[in-house]
Specification:
51% helix; Rossmann fold; alpha/beta; 9 strands; single chain; two-stranded parallel ribbon; elongated
């Protein structure tokens, strides 16, 4: 007999396990729940690597998992297992507050390059030396750096070389690092420090580390997170190090898509290319490619099951998130959406009755036949006869259209649920390779499930899953405004495109079903390019190649869609199906003149003027939410 869990503590625990989407929030617990993704082994090589993905794709978790602290925790704090690794991971996050201090103040960019490179040397060398100290606290018999090695490292950083041991070196570098940070804002007053050469001190520390008996042949991995926070010239500085990494260390970066803005080195004729200079791992592509899509599903289920078993805390290793998030078939959903109450279904049944027929097909199939007759202005009886004589063709048509018909069943009604988004596989597709989004969907679903008096071990209803999906889409839409300098424009773009896709799904009778992507006709303006790039970088948009053979050399080689996470909020299909073509003016009109542009685009796609005017084409975020919820 399963005991009902009603205590509010279960929700607090749920939020701790699933609500802490960011690696930073989990702190030390990040490694308790670490689940190794398929591409993890790709990063365990001495070759430079680039881990690319949007917010929430797990870049930070993976890079921290490669760090020496991460590896130690993942290996259950077993130093013997840890020492079998052939690498030492040094994690560094590009802090916007720090890196943006290296500009202006009367100095030109070339001067700042030299200053930043010295700072980078200081902070990375200190982290590398701090690792040596950490390791010695666990293995007290570690060999220390020699006096000569310590003096050599200090000299390479232009520090006082009159030191005698490792402890003095560590204190010297730490003090120099903080003094340098404190003086950076006064550098325009002539307080120019002595500067070290880019990468040289880092290489010396790595080489001297390899001479120690406990670290023979071990390579340092410099794990640089949030690479997009670096300014353009700072990316150029680190690019130069990546291009010319020595054998003693390598560099792996985590960066948002479109965040690696500069690919050249200090030599403008020299650029970094995959795979000649680094190995690129695009997380979304890795997890959403048709040939490897099951990788994300399995990875995500492992992540969620690990947390849910911790939540239930009964040692039930058989508990599976796939079974807990129940799904619903298209035909079952049609009945829940009251297909039998629609006028089209009733007209079909009426003709069946008059002609004493019983076609023995699902109500949604009957709805399709009546719908087909209506949009083609044909007598329903003639279309039914056509079905009887051409059932194979009609079966194919039904399979092609039945999902899209679900959006039309409550046409003209604005209900809290007018389309269901439920089931583990649906959530996986809504997340689109983003583990943070997937965890948010699960977290919201279980919170609603528990709030309504259900046991955490029971299956979550399709209603609670759907409301959760809408809430997550809404939350991400509202957060767009603060995502970047033009976040308000991105928000308006998503609203406009979401409204278009929604109206086409509900009211587009003569358009192809499931239109939810777009590409461009004609030239793309600089402003549109900026919007596309920032939209992709901030997960408002996703892109995919229009043609895998095109080479993807320009923005026109891609087609775009709103991130699938927004689909439940607006009520349209998340499935990657069909596209519409926009002009540059229409794209920008979605931002600048949304009412007029949305109406014009819908009319051009044969949505009737009556349907276009049946709901405001542009609403404030809160208006749209209230409008739908108040029309249940």
């Amino acid at each position: 007999m399963i005991q009902k869990i009603m205590d509010i503590n279960i929700q607090e625990k749920l939020d701790q396990l699933f609500g802490s989407y960011k690696a930073e929030w989990l702190k030390k617990d990040i490694f308790k729940f670490f689940t190794e993704p398929y591409y993890f082994t790709i990063l365990k090589s001495n070759y430079p690597g680039v881990l690319q993905g949007g917010r929430g794709t797990g870049k930070t978790t993976v890079l921290r998992g490669l760090s020496y602290l991460g590896q130690y925790e993942i290996l259950n704090s077993d130093i013997k297992k840890f020492d079998k690794n052939n690498f030492i991971g040094i994690y560094y996050r590009a802090n916007t507050n720090h890196v943006r201090a290296f500009c202006g103040k009367g100095l030109d960019e070339n001067e700042w390059k030299a200053i930043f490179e010295h700072y980078f040397n200081l902070i990375i060398c200190w982290e590398m030396l701090h690792f040596l100290e950490w390791h010695k606290t666990i293995k007290s018999d570690d060999e220390d750096l020699s006096k000569y090695a310590c003096q050599l490292i200090a000299s390479s950083l232009h520090l006082n070389a009159h030191i005698n041991n490792f402890k003095e070196l560590l204190n010297l570098v730490e003090t120099a690092m903080y003094e340098f940070q404190a003086e950076i804002n006064n550098i325009a007053d002539g307080n120019m420090p002595k500067l070290s050469m880019a990468g040289v001190p880092i290489e010396i520390v790595a080489q001297q580390t390899q001479k120690l008996r406990q670290f023979k042949n071990k390579v340092y991995y410099l794990l640089i997170d949030e690479y997009e926070n670096f300014t353009d010239y700072q990316q150029e500085c680190v690019n130069t190090l990546i291009k010319h990494v020595p054998e003693s260390y390598t560099i792996k970066i985590g960066v948002r898509e479109m965040g690696w803005r500069i690919k050249t080195t200090h030599n403008k004729m020299e650029s970094l290319n995959d795979p000649a200079d680094y190995k690129l791992t695009n997380i979304e592509e890795f997890f959403t490619d048709a040939q490897t899509a099951d990788r994300f599903e399995e990875f995500a289920s492992n992540v969620c099951n690990l947390r849910l078993r911790k939540l239930i805390n009964d040692g039930n290793e058989e508990y599976d998130i796939r079974k807990s998030l129940v799904s619903i078939s298209i035909e079952e959903e049609a009945e829940k959406l009251n297909v039998k109450k629609t006028s089209l279904y009733k007209s079909f049944v009426e003709i069946e009755s008059k002609n004493k027929m019983d076609l023995n097909i699902h109500p949604l199939y009957k709805y399709l036949i009546a719908y087909w007759a209506e949009i083609h202005n044909e007598p329903l009886k003639d279309v039914i006869d056509n079905y009887v004589n051409n059932q194979d063709d009609w079966n194919q048509r039904y399979n092609n259209y039945k999902y899209s018909l679900l959006f039309k069943l409550n046409k003209g009604k604005y209900l809290k649920i007018s389309k269901y988004y439920a089931g583990w596989n649906t959530f996986v597709k809504l997340a689109n390779g983003n583990i943070r989004y997937l965890m948010a969907l699960v977290n919201q679903s279980y919170n609603l499930h528990i709030e309504n008096g259900n046991d955490v071990k029971d299956s979550v209803s399709v209603e609670h899953q759907t409301i959760a999906a809408k809430n997550v889409g809404w939350k991400n839409l509202t957060e767009l405004e603060g995502s970047c300098m033009i976040g308000l424009q991105l928000t308006q773009l998503v609203q406009s495109l979401g409204t278009i896709f929604k109206r086409l799904a509900k009211d587009g009778n003569k358009t192809a079903p499931e239109i939810n992507q777009f590409d461009f006709d004609g030239e793309i303006s600089d402003r549109s390019r900026e919007m596309l790039n920032l939209g992709i970088m901030n997960l408002a948009l996703v892109r995919m190649p229009s043609n895998k053979l095109s080479g993807m050399k320009s923005l026109k080689d891609f087609q775009y869609q709103l991130h699938p996470i927004f689909a439940p909020y607006f009520d349209y299909s998340f499935r990657k199906k069909r596209k519409m073509t926009l002009t540059d003016a229409e794209f920008l009109g979605c931002i600048d003149t949304p009412n007029e542009t949305v109406a014009r685009m819908l009319l051009r796609r044969d949505v009737s003027e009556e349907e276009v005017n049946s709901v405001p084409t542009q609403l404030t975020l809160f208006d749209l939410n209230n409008f739908e919820n108040n029309n249940d």
